[in-house]
Design goal:
The complex is a heterodimer of chains A (about 400) and B (about 260). With about 400 residues, chain A is an alpha+beta fold. Chain A has helices at about 1-15, 15-55, 85-95, 125-130, 145-150, 160-165, 210-215, 235-250, 265-305, 310-315, 320-360, 365-395, 395-400; strands spanning about 60-65, 95-100, 105-110, 115-125, 135-140, 155, 175, 180-190, 205, 225-230, 260-265. Chain A has two domains: about 1-50 and about 270-400, no CATH class; about 80-255, no CATH class. In chain A, α9 runs antiparallel to α11 (about 320-360) and α11 (about 320-360) packs antiparallel against α12. Classes of the chains: A alpha+beta (about 400), B alpha/beta (about 260). The structure holds adenosine-5'-triphosphate and magnesium ion.
């Protein structure tokens, strides 16, 4: 009987192919939205977590600005900038800090021969490599003398190397950054993509003084990386740095900080927080769309029941029970919404794959979510198909036979 | 099925456990009122009727005299407003919708004026329909449906849709559907109403054969005296009452 009901349902659905397609569109969109969003959301969360572990959980970032501003916010507002002296003070006066290094960044075009490539130029020093735990693939780090005089030596990230030099050896070559020419002394190992598709290897390192003088034109340090000694808690190191910075920046006991110390966990939880808010929001949209989809199914099933009144009369006359008629129409609406759900799942996975490719994050389909989407669409079919099916089952056989 | 039913005599009873002389169908003071107040229509005004297993009964009467109303009640498609209906010796007045559906499925076959076949559905699938609801397995269903179609002379037309069949052929499919469950009674409301004279006589021959050979009780409404002549009992309806019953002396009705 169930087999017969499924066969009949497929027959009825295929007879009105186009109408059936329009009917399930709401379910398709709802399910596809949830699957795509959660897949991309999960992928970016995975990515952030992976980034945090490549950056190292023992890394702190110090930036000028109000505490309310996130690490992603632009220049540090009106707060006074950091200085190279701050970097040294943090490293020398705080025992829990192993190394501290400045990091000023700016988007710039680098030129080699006739190749132009726009990348991020970061002014820093040798300690950057230690703090970020980032070894060189070839060449050498900055000499002390280069750092002191701010001479134009540069270390290329792997992406920049490939873009400018292809397969050939960049060491000793001269590239142009804006108006300055600079000699390539080293190449960083490849690190891979980070959250939301930023390529960490898309970078050129120059001595901080060279950056300050020739690129920024001031003595500011916009960010300090501090790496914490093993076995010391992030919170303790953070408190130490905050105390020292308050002192150095002469902040009164009742004044607020005008700088921020972030740890990577904070950044990752903030990023995943944004992702989950977005996912939640879009899931709400998806839920509404599923509701609308369900109402669409109910509507079309009611139309179908009315159109097929005579058929129902015939079935009742030859001895179908209420339950058998109910089952037939319920199965039809379940099959209808399951087809919608399946199309939605496939579409959602395709969109999720596309999204993760575009954002260069891992593709993270969630099997239990897919199962849930499948069951949920079956449930939509049951809930919204029940009333029309009941209407069919309760028909008066004589009136049904007389119909039309 | 064939072995048993072909051996049954012309007037033999159906498969129900009713004794030879107890009526298969018995109506007592059946009334049917449609609507209420000013719109009230008294379609049946007290019908007393006994039908024995194996009878071939024709019902005639002017339009609006309550023939279809009575047929619907006899076929468990409708419930009377008053009176008692016994089928196979058991009262059916208090049965539920589903119990009535089971009675229709197991003991009755319907033939309608308008054929009432499922559109866009092959003759074979149409005939299988009652067996599906009986829960019969596919292969057995197929076999019985093919047998029934062969019996009504539609061998080779099994895959045709109703739209590909003539009116007479469609009515044969409907008869095949009615007999595929090996019913006790066929209820036919103006089965030849949409057919020309030649086709009507073919259908009547078929019904007569089912009655004589298989012992199926047949109740048929008709407006054509020619068709009524095939029956061995003729009942006239007038104004919601039975005006005459051509074999009344045999059936011995009258409960009051
Ligand atoms: N569903 C209904 N609601 C109200 N009145 C009805 C309904 N069905 C039948 N009637 C009325 O009951 C009476 C008997 O109708 P019925 O259909 O039984 O007549 P009939 O003898 O079959 O007529 P015909 O020969 O035209 O088919 C008629 O007056 C009809 O109008
Ligand atoms: Mg009638």
């Amino acid at each position: 009987m169930l087999y017969e009901a499924i066969r009949l349902a497929l027959q009825a659905i295929l007879r009105n192919m186009f109408r059936s397609f329009l009917t399930v569109l709401g379910i398709v969109i709802g399910v596809a939205a949830v699957i795509a969003m959660v897949t991309v959301g999960q992928g970016s969360t995975d990515q952030v977590e992976a980034d945090v572990s490549t950056l190292g959980t023992n890394l702190l970032m110090i930036r000028p600005g109000q505490p309310s501003q996130g690490p992603g916010s632009g220049v540090g507002g009106t707060a006074a900038s950091l200085t190279l002296k701050d970097v040294d003070a943090i490293e020398e006066q705080i025992p829990s800090v192993m190394v501290a290094t400045p990091s000023n960044s700016r988007a710039m075009t680098v030129i080699f021969g006739n190749v132009n490539y726009s990348t991020t130029v970061t002014g820093t020093d040798t300690r950057f490599l230690t703090a970020r735990d980032w070894p060189l693939e070839s060449g050498r780090a900055f000499y002390e003398s280069e750092l002191r005089t701010g001479s134009s030596a540069c270390i290329l990230g792997n992406t920049v190397k490939t873009k400018l030099f292809g397969g050939s050896d960049p060491l000793g070559a001269s590239i142009r950054l804006k108006q300055i020419s600079c000699r390539v002394i080293g190449v960083l190992e490849a690190k891979g993509a980070s959250s939301f598709g930023t390529d960490q290897d898309d970078i050129v390192l120059v001595p901080i003084r060279a950056f300050q003088r020739r690129i920024a034109g001031n003595q500011d340090v916009s960010m300090i990386f501090a790496s914490i000694r093993n076995g010391i808690s992030t919170d303790k190191a953070k408190a130490d740095i905050e105390r020292l910075m308050r002192e150095r920046r002469r902040i009164g006991p009742f004044e607020e900080d005008d700088f921020n110390v972030f740890d990577m966990k904070q950044i990752s939880s903030m990023l995943t927080g944004i992702t989950s808010v977005l996912t939640g929001l879009l899931s709400a949209v998806a839920a509404v769309s599923l509701l609308v989809g369900g109402i669409g199914i109910m509507n079309i099933m009611l139309v179908s029941v009315t159109e097929r009144t005579r058929e129902i009369g015939i079935r009742l006359a030859v001895g179908a029970t209420e339950g058998q008629v109910l089952l037939q129409f319920l199965v039809e609406s379940i099959v209808l919404s399951l087809i919608g759900g399946l199309i939605g799942i496939m579409l959602g996975l395709a969109l999720g794959l596309l999204g993760s490719r575009l954002l260069s994050i891992p593709f993270a389909p969630n099997p239990s979510l897919i199962l849930a989407a499948f069951l949920f669409s079956a449930m939509v079919g049951i809930v919204f198909g029940y009333f029309p099916a009941l209407r069919a089952a309760r028909m008066d056989p004589i009136e049904a036979l007389r119909h039309q | 099925m064939t072995a048993e039913s072909t051996s049954a005599t012309a007037a033999g009873p159906g498969a129900l456990p009713a004794s030879r002389d107890a009526p298969l169908i018995s109506l007592r003071q059946i009334t049917k009122i449609y609507g209420s107040g000013d719109a009230e229509v008294r379609a049946l005004r007290g019908i007393d009727l006994d039908i024995l297993g194996g009878e071939f009964v024709a019902i005639m009467g002017p339009s609006g005299s309550g023939k279809s109303t009575a047929m619907n009640i006899l076929g468990f498609l409708d419930k009377p407003s008053g009176g008692t209906y016994s089928f196979g010796g058991a009262e059916v007045d208090h049965l539920s919708r589903d119990q009535l559906a089971l009675l229709r499925r197991n003991f009755l076959g319907f033939v309608f004026q308008g054929y009432n076949l499922l559109a866009r559905t092959s003759a074979l699938d149409n005939v299988e329909l009652p067996l599906i609801y009986q829960g019969m397995a596919r292969t057995q269903r197929r076999r019985l449906a093919l047998e029934a179609l062969a019996k009504v002379g539609l061998k080779g037309r099994e895959d045709h849709d109703p739209s590909q069949l003539s009116g007479g052929q469609q009515q044969r499919v409907a008869i095949a559907r009615a007999i595929v469950t090996n019913p006790d009674v066929i209820l036919a409301d103006e089965p030849t109403g949409n057919l020309d004279t030649a086709r009507s006589h073919e259908i009547m021959d078929l019904l007569t054969e089912l009655n004589r050979k298989d012992g199926i009780t047949i109740l048929m409404v008709t407006h054509e005296p020619d068709m009524a002549e095939y029956a061995d009992r003729l009942i006239h309806f007038l104004d919601g009452r039975i005006a005459s019953d051509a074999s009344a002396e045999k059936a011995a009705p009258d409960a009051l």
